[in-house]
Amino acid sequence: KAGVTQTPRYLIKTRGQQVTLSCSPISGHRSVSWYQQTPGQGLQFLFEYFSETQRNKGNFPGRFSGRQFSNSRSEMNVSTLELGDSALYLCASSPLSGGNTGELFFGEGSRLTVL
Amino acid sequence: QQQVKQSPQSLIVQKGGISIINCAYENTAFDYFPWYQQFPGKGPALLIAIRPDVSEKKEGRFTISFNKSAKQFSLHIMDSQPGDSATYFCAASRAGANSKLTFGKGITLSVRP
Asked: A41 to chain B: which residues are within 8 Å by CB?
């Protein structure tokens, strides 16, 4: 079974630009969560989608948005990039929605650098 | 407000020793406590998890100890190996379809040969 696939793996953008990251979950998984990982803050929850509906959202500004398609693939978008948005963005999939329903399967992440 | 706090921030252990990582939480509604392990260049992967109906869970060299009254849980790695060198995250979540998994900031474990 293929794991969670994230694209692109690395990207460099400049301040003010926008970026779209993609995540393909494990086949059969309907929940996709996104996390931002930085050295100082660890893993911070961005949002979760389940069956194309946003189930939960973290404390990030409206510049961060996401969506999920009918095939469970998900995208997240960051508009008007700031230097502080430089981070590793991780996508995780699971069969069920909710944080305590079992294992999250993470992808290897998309490393975003904002110059 | 950080809901899940890990300590220490980093840890160096000799091969064969015991690694102990602690985690404290604030929300008494949390009822699921996993530990994730992350190697450089990889995403985190579930190592072991516990629910509050038991005080200890062991899987191979890895043990979670849970203290509900103190709102703390810890990860013990017995006979630590250089291959255990990684970043370890504790996490917690409450029940409910709209709940989220809240992670600690992570600690870097180095096991010296």
From this structure: 105
